[in-house]
Amino acid sequence: MPLIQLLFEHGAFDAEATRVTSQALTLYAIGVPMIGVILFMNSVYFSLGRLGILVKLNLVSWGVNLLLNVILGRMLAHQGIALSTTITALLTVVLLLYFLIHDSLPTFKTRLLLTSSAKILMASLAMGAFLIWITPPVHSSLHGVGLSHQVFELTALIVVGLAVYLLAAFLLRLDELRLMTRAVRKLLR
What we know:
Layout lengths: L1 H7 L6 H33 L3 H26 L1 H27 L5 H33 L4 H25 L3 H14 L1
Helix pairs in contact: 1-6, 2-4, 3-4, 5-6
């Protein structure tokens, strides 16, 4: 809500518009990591020359999204469309992983891929849960103050969220974090 309030709550865009927009954004945000995975998986399929299955899976995804948009849009209005996008993204990731593991990469180290994905998911959930817990008290203490306070609040929440994610990734011994740390150190030398 702080982001929407900072960017849009001016003039005719009032507190109610902020609330309604933040509901949809929350539902979309849940699906954003899945969309990132889809983009990555599309590249994997493309590099493996598995374009036929990729096209079929994306057509199924588009069809499911359209169907869910109609059904959930009627039931939940704008929130239904956001929810349908998130559900479709999750389904698409599951299908892409299933066909990749079972058809394309029988010798691939699937356990490593699934372990890494699970750790990333857990770190993301830890960050999301912490931000859901900390945002209301921070927001209420700064609500109604000027633009500079809103910018500070949003920046602080982003920094804290990143710190929680990195801490969780460190505690989970996420290999990608070690690789990223090495790359950053190499750049700074």
